[in-house]
User: What shape does this take?
Amino acid sequence: MTAAPGGPGPASAGVPARPGPGEYVLGVDSGGSGLRVALGTVGSDDPLDTAVCAEPVRTGPSGIDAAHLLDQLLPTVRELLTRHGGGSGIAAAAIGAAGMGTLGDRLRAELPDALADALGVRRLALAADAVTAYAGAIGQRPGAVVAAGTGLIALGTDLTRWRRADGWGHLLGDSGGGAWIGRAGLDAAMRAHDGRRGGSPALLARLEAVFGPAPGLPGLLYPRTDRPAVLASFAPEVAGCAAHDPVAEGILRDAAGHIAEAAAAVCPSPGTDDETCEVALTGGLFRMGAPLLVPLREELARLLPHARAVPGSGDPLIGSLHIARALATGGLRLPHHPTLLSIPLSGLDQPAAGDVTEQGS
Assistant: This one.
């Protein structure tokens, strides 16, 4: 485990005050890059401390491995608590995980009792990582978030229900995401190799620089179990060619159209007072910068004239901490849902579960 100090707590004579019993809150973000933990207090939005665990949580035939998550999480939390004065329990925790919606059955079945017994957790939220990204970027206001990296999912709410678009994986969707852009770029490269219409010599040159001779690409790609990541690794090459290659530029413009369509499908409709809908763009894909963001802003302005793009600061770890704090204080306004945002410890005066609409319907 590695740890980094978070924001300071209240101080007296220059010494941070230690939280009292039950004043701690816990945020957790479990994703493909690892397991991250943030310890905070009920009275502050900022973390006291953060830690990164040794490895990503395993996923097996029965879904996300709850035991593997607990094996890493519990000692990490105990170390953070010891570092900040101990305490008799955690008021609330929020666990955000990639795949929670479809692979989180074991987490929902095992974590409530395990965290209550081991850490005294009294209130618990289990959330999809798109929900924690939403909470980190927009908070508890109506709006929409597009989380894009290798894949792509859009999630929005008017605070009565969730609306979801895409996130169906690289074979069925994730349109405009990293794997989609990379595959389109490789397709254009192979078309140039064959002499077919729509080919890009510039992208063919980049394919050969990255992967070797074009005819060998199928043998390199098809046996891989991480094909989406391999496809996405070519997306920066497409962005690098966009300034001087019209085919690459067109791929990114098409990607921008797909991303904007996903945002439009989930963004709440303007109310009677024409409230502005906030749209946050989060995830590594948007680090491509201008080649993608310029056409994307144009498409968002066309499809969502009432929307306002907000900085993509939606760190899912901070979002999970904010959800935990809201849960601890009885102020959680984001709608509950059996898989996207569940509150498994019942009888705690929480509102009823909300609805979810897929593909903006």
Observations:
- The chain is about 40% helix and 20% strand.
- The CA atoms of residues 107 and 189 lie 43 Å apart.
